Automatic annotation (TrEMBL):
Residues 534-786 form the EAL domain. This is EAL domain-containing protein. PROSITE patterns: EAL, GGDEF. Pfam families: EAL, GAF_2, GGDEF. It comes from the Bacteria. InterPro entries: Biofilm_reg_signaling, EAL_dom, EAL_sf, GAF, GAF-like_dom_sf, GGDEF_dom, Nucleotide_cyclase, Rev_trsase/Diguanyl_cyclase.
Length: 786
């Protein structure tokens, strides 16, 4: 029996151990340190030969060793044999089940005892629990029988209680820290994904987008080896759009054929349109199955996601890890899947933008450069002349196909389009890859040759082109043959302009066209002089309108039956302050070409309206005046408002101001033109078709457009002398069948008058009655014939 002093000393020692233990626990912040401290203190302070802390797994099925401390014995170093014990198995597992302490001085007799490498006689085992939740057990064994006392049990139970509270505290703190870390990680991921979404919608350059994208990806994933590929399903080519190897950006835009990639993991996921996440063993398993082959090094981990862009393109984005400490997980797959969708949208936007840019700079039918792109390339080439000391020239070839309009009109636009495409293919086979081949509109083309060494080089090219395009072509069952009128202009001066070079080549082409079909003409000084005159006229036209330099002269239209004057055609005259009287043939085509014809026509219409009001104010006889206008006016309903305003402002009588349009300028948009003409009906405005018979395009339009009057061109009337002209008869019969009035232009002989009268032509116009007269003379002439 222990004396009272011994009991007191023992109690004091117990309290000292517990106080020191409790005090030390306050300073421990890591579970590993905590477990090591407890097992060490139990062995050293209590004199036990071992101490093992077991922790329950999250599913409360097993106990696993968390820490152990023991004294070595004669058979070798101390170690725990039972590192994992099923709860309910053995004494330790039983304590975990019952949550009751166990103490025994002779465990060999206990039915649940499981012997270790060093069999024990005594065992002390207490549960670790907090709030009725099993945390684990502390198990101590000793080779001596009846070694453990109730005092040991009391101390170990107290230690277990304090340890359980501390484990719970540290676990709670650890869970909180983990939760906070996960929250921060989630917030960082959310910010990264938002950044990706923002750059997807704001990027201007795809390469810069990839750079920004990679920085974000590298902040979230192991991305030392990364690439984005775009697969063209029509050409079976994979283009590496972006490539990172070993953390370094590499030159991308490598094009790889299907034969080169068909055995790779990237092509495997493209073909199956499924993502692939695998470690090294799984990667090799795919190789063994024949899904793909090993290309390069074997990865520690491989992650690839396919994506769709449009009907033509598929994409793939791949991450590879060769670091044993870095493997991809399903979470990474989810992130990369989201990223792949953003990349898909970015590429689709870029392709759409490129398609729009291409359409803006290229011809829809042929795919050739358009006028704008041609001029831009000429402009930059001319600028380079100032930076390079060279005797090279730049050359522009302007080609107009002969008789193309007849193909369109006689065989249809589809045949015409196919014919143009065939011509383009033949010319493409003649020119250099560095040359710019452009379609300027209709059947007009241009070839810009930069850095021509000599003019002979151009001559050889022209020989090739003319030989190629004159070969018979089989188009939609028709055998067609082309020829072209070609103009050529050169430049070697950085002060030249692109538009001037184009105008020079155009002028040379028109010179070639006037010389006969299939001709080539080089721009020369005579043409330069004419271009200068045209440029001067273009500049002077605007001043002429502002300064009232234009005037109207009125040529009578008369009845072939009675000779009475029925109306006037207003003809423009330009009294230039320096050049005197300028012929309409000299400025009307230029005004039409530059678009100045719109303003000029409106000015002339107003002059005619003012004159009609002036005659009305003078109480002179009512009459009709017709004014020639460009077909450009029939492209907008605003023209109806313009004519209505003239009628209302100048208080014109219905039908007193009418319009003439030449057959060569017939309107392309018949539906809109018809609406415009019908919109003028309430004003009594009649539409005259001037110069009828000089072409054949009008024949198909006469029954569609609400034309009121045909004017037979003077060239047909000139032939009406001693013999008949069947074309005049045909025109008169056509007009009669369509219930149209006919005016014969250019009547100069009595014979012509009488023949036309006999054929049933109602009205005439020409010098036989009067030349164009100034307004006062015209009205005086009208009064003298009434």
């Amino acid at each position: 029996m222990l004396s009272e002093n011994q009991k007191l000393e023992s109690k004091t020692e117990q309290l000292s151990i517990i106080n020191q233990f409790s005090s030390s626990l306050l300073h421990l912040t890591k579970l590993d340190e905590l477990f090591e401290y407890v097992t060490t203190q139990v062995v050293n302070r209590l004199g036990f030969v071992d101490c093992v802390i077991y922790l329950a797994d999250p599913y409360q099925e097993y106990l696993e060793v968390a820490a152990s401390m023991g004294v070595s014995h004669a058979n070798g170093d101390y170690r725990v044999e039972q590192t994992k014990i099923k709860i309910g198995s053995g004494i330790t597992g039983q304590v975990a089940t019952t949550r009751e302490p166990f103490i025994s001085g002779n465990v060999a007799a206990h039915p649940m005892y499981i012997a270790d490498l060093r069999p024990a006689m005594s065992e002390l085992c207490v549960p670790l629990e907090y709030d009725d939740h099993l945390i684990g057990v502390i198990d101590c064994e000793h080779p001596e029988a009846d070694y453990f006392t109730s005092a040991h049990l009391q101390i170990l139970s107290t230690v277990a209680h304090l340890l359980s509270a501390k484990i719970h505290q540290l676990r709670t703190l650890e869970n909180l820290q983990t939760t906070i870390a996960q929250l921060h990680q989630a917030q960082n991921l959310e910010k990264s994904l938002l950044k990706i979404a923002n750059i997807t919608y704001r990027f201007e350059n795809l390469e810069a987008f990839y750079d920004d994208l990679y920085k974000i990806i590298a902040s979230q994933l192991c991305a030392e080896n990364f690439f984005i590929g775009l697969y063209d399903t029509q050409q079976d080519i994979l283009e590496i759009d972006y490539l990172i190897e070993g953390g370094e950006k590499c030159n991308a835009h490598q094009k790889v054929s299907k034969d080169q990639i068909k055995h790779t993991a990237s092509y495997y996921i493209l073909k199956n349109q499924r993502p692939l996440l695998c470690d090294n063993d799984q990667f090799r398993m795919h190789i063994t199955r024949g899904d793909f082959k090993m290309v390069g090094r074997s990865p520690r981990s491989w992650l690839g996601v396919p994506f769709l862009v449009n009907d033509q393109y598929q994409g793939v984005i791949v991450l590879q890890s060769y670091n044993n400490d870095q493997a991809f997980v399903n979470h990474d797959l989810s992130i990369l899947t989201y990223i792949s969708r953003q990349v898909s949208m970015a590429i689709d936007r870029q392709l759409s933008r490129q398609a729009l840019e291409h359409r803006a700079l290229h011809d829809d039918l042929t795919g050739l450069a358009n006028r704008y792109l041609l001029l831009e390339r000429i402009k930059h080439a001319i600028l380079r002349l100032a930076r390079v000391e060279s005797s090279n020239l730049h050359c522009l070839i302007y080609l107009d196909l002969d008789r193309f309009k007849s193909i369109n009109d006689s065989l249809g636009h589809d045949v015409g389009d196919h014919f143009l495409i065939a011509i383009v293919e033949m010319i493409n086979g003649c020119i250099r890859k560095t040359d710019t081949f452009a379609r300027l509109g209709g059947d007009e083309f241009a070839i810009f040759m930069e850095n021509v060494q000599d003019r002979q080089q151009v001559t050889l090219l022209l020989d090739r082109i003319t030989t190629a395009i004159t070969k018979p072509l089989h188009i939609d069952g028709h055998v067609l043959q082309a020829s072209g009128s070609i103009g050529v202009a050169f430049t070697d001066n950085e002060s030249d302009s692109a538009i001037n070079l184009l105008q020079q080549a155009d002028a040379a082409m028109y010179e070639a066209k006037s010389s006969g079909r299939g001709q080539v003409c080089y721009f020369n000084n005579a043409m330069r002089k004419r271009l200068k005159q045209q440029a001067d006229i273009e500049n002077d036209l605007q001043h002429g309108i502002k300064n009232n330099e234009f005037a109207l002269y009125y040529q009578p239209i008369f009845s072939l039956t009675t000779g009475a004057i029925v109306s006037f055609e207003a003809l423009v005259r330009w009294f230039h302050p320096k050049n005197g009287l300028v012929s309409p043939d000299a400025f009307i085509p230029i005004a039409e070409q530059t678009g100045q014809i719109i303003e000029l026509d409106l000015h002339l219409l107003e002059l005619a309206a003012k004159q009609l009001k002036r005659w009305k104010a003078q109480k002179l006889p009512k009459t009709r005046v017709t004014v020639n206008v460009s077909s450009r006016h029939f492209a907008s309903l605003e023209f109806v408002d313009t004519i209505q305003q003239l009628y209302h402002h100048y208080e014109l009588a219905p039908g007193s101001l009418c319009l003439e349009i030449t057959e060569s300028g017939l309107i392309a948009n018949l539906a809109l033109a018809t609406k415009i003409i019908q919109g003028l009906e309430s004003l009594g405005v009649k539409l005259y078709l001037d110069d009828f018979g000089t072409g054949y395009s009008a024949l198909g339009y006469l029954h569609q457009l609400p034309i009121h009057v045909l004017k037979i061109d003077k060239s047909f009337i000139d032939q009406l002398t001693e013999r008949e002209n069947p074309l005049v008869d045909a025109i008169l019969k056509l007009a009669q069948s369509l219930n149209l009035t006919v005016v014969a232009e250019g009547i100069e002989l009595e014979t012509q008058w009488q023949l036309l009268k006999q054929k049933g032509c109602q009205f005439g116009q020409g010098y036989i009655v009067s030349k164009p007269l100034a307004a006062d003379q015209a009205m005086a002439f009208l009064l003298s014939r009434s």
